[in-house]
Design brief:
- With 433 residues, the protein is an alpha+beta fold.
- It folds into 4 domains: 74 residues, no CATH class; 78 residues, Immunoglobulins (Immunoglobulin-like, Sandwich), CATH 2.60.40.10; 80 residues, Immunoglobulin-like, CATH 2.60.40.10; 176 residues, Collagenase (Catalytic Domain) (3-Layer(aba) Sandwich).
- The strands form 9 sheets. Strands 5-7-10-9 form a 4-stranded antiparallel sheet, with no helix packed on it. Strands 6-12-11-8 form a 4-stranded mixed sheet, with no helix packed on it.
- The N terminus is likely disordered.
- The structure holds zinc ion.
């Protein structure tokens, strides 16, 4: 401030000396008030000769020190200026992107700030802005600011969102989910919408994973299947697929396997080997046993010749049956299984079981008992029902000691099938045959 004060004094001296006393005029005058102490450049005061007698510079009769001071008087650069064009808001930028060139008129250096989705390239006279493609369905906005010399020029920018999109993978139906729980499916969600919701049946749990979500099926303990729909919704856009979970099978067997015949099932007329007592009327007992199973399974068993039947029945003494079957054990009845092909895994009592399709021929062997205790007619019927049950698909034994399919027949057995015995095999014929 002291220095600034001295400039004022000098100028006043010059004006008074040259204009009024010595005959010189001062040109290139300036406004002392624009000086600042911070930004000083040299400024020369020019003198115009108006009198020949005092034409020389050196002859100026003034305090030379003061004059030199005046000659080197400094002034500031002119004030900082900064304008931009266009300066209006840049709105409605297409989601695919756009550019705008800004002309900057200034006498100072400047900086530019902008949202991260806008990039700047310097061009002659200013810069060009390029708004990137907006991948999101959400609009976005911000501010571009040009700052220099303490001046800031700003305008707002906004870009519309891309068309909302949603896709899921896989999008195929998720069916035949095992009744036993913990089956999972991971869904990848591709969307430009910030968030989405998942609706699903209550027996499916959902958890977020990277890029989507994972569904886990709970165990279906019911003997009926269940189904529903999984729907992913984002911004009103749905993507869905169907889900269905198998039922839990009813199981009444000590085995894990079960079989069935498809197509025509024929049972041959029994072939009696060797001499048998008159009470061993296997033809009638086999016929009764077939009727019992046809009723239990709701299917037809067609009569056939012994040779051509899918299920062949042999009858005779234990020795003959051992010889015919090749099995040397003591048995009342025996069943040899035909060819089998795996067709399904099913859940029963929360255990996975295997379902087989039978083909070819099955052989059943019935003995007439050890003398003198021949089987009764009821026992023979029960024997045929039991072995025919194996031949038709019961590949295990019923757990109840009184059941016809119990592994050891009671003397009181007559071939009656309990509800559970019938249900165990019938559900297989109903579902797979
Ligand atoms: Zn058995």
């Amino acid at each position: 401030m002291r220095k600034k004060l001295s400039y004022v004094i000098v100028v006043v001296l010059i004006l008074s000396i040259f204009n009024n006393a010595a005959g010189y005029a001062v040109s290139n005058t300036f406004d002392i008030d624009q000086f600042s102490d911070d930004d000083i450049v040299a400024e020369t005061i020019w003198l115009t000769d108006t009198n020949e007698a005092f034409a020389t510079w050196d002859g100026i009769s003034m305090d030379s020190l003061q004059y030199e001071e005046a000659k080197t008087t400094s002034s500031t650069q002119s004030s900082a200026t900064l304008t931009i064009s266009p300066s209006t808001a840049w709105t409605g930028i297409s989601a695919t992107g756009a550019t705008r060139t800004i002309t900057v008129t200034t006498n100072v250096s400047y900086t530019v700030s902008m949202p991260t989705w806008i990039t700047r390239t310097n061009v002659t006279g200013g810069f060009r802005l390029e708004a990137a493609r907006n991948p999101s369905a959400a609009a976005r906005s911000g501010t571009v600011s040009v700052t220099g010399g303490g001046i800031t020029r700003s305008f707002s920018v906004s870009q519309v969102g891309a068309p909302p999109s949603l896709s899921i993978s896989p999008s195929t139906n998720w069916i035949n989910i095992p009744a036993i729980g913990n089956a999972t499916r991971t869904i990848t969600v591709t969307t430009n919408i910030p968030s989405y919701t998942v609706s699903r049946p209550s027996w499916l749990t959902v958890e977020n994973v990277s890029g989507g979500f994972r569904l886990t099926a709970q165990s279906n303990t019911a003997t009926t299947a269940r189904s529903g729909t999984v729907t992913v919704t984002a911004n009103g856009i749905p993507a869905s697929f169907s889900v269905s979970q198998n039922k839990q099978y009813f199981w009444y067997s000590d085995g894990n396997n079960v079989g069935f015949w498809s197509g025509i099932i024929s049972v041959g007329a029994p072939e009696i080997i060797g001499a048998v007592p008159p009470s061993f009327n296997l033809f009638n007992r086999a016929s009764e046993a077939q009727t019992i199973w046809m009723s239990a399974l709701g299917i037809a068993l067609y009569p056939n010749t012994h040779t051509n039947a899918s299920i062949q029945i042999f009858g005779g003494s234990l020795a003959e049956m051992q010889k015919e079957s090749g099995d040397s054990r003591d048995f009342a009845g025996l069943c040899s299984y035909p060819s089998m092909a795996t067709v399904a895994s099913i859940a029963a009592n929360n255990t996975m079981r295997t379902v087989y399709r039978f083909s070819g021929r099955s052989k059943t062997f019935i003995t007439y008992g050890i003398e003198p205790d021949y089987w009764t007619e009821d026992m023979i019927r029960a024997l045929v029902v039991h072995e025919l049950g194996h031949a038709l698909g019961s590949m295990g034994h019923a757990p109840n000691i009184n059941a016809t399919m119990y592994y050891k027949l009671q003397w009181t057995a007559n071939g009656t099938l309990s509800t559970n015995e019938a249900r165990h095999l019938r559900q297989i014929y109903d579902d797979f045959r």
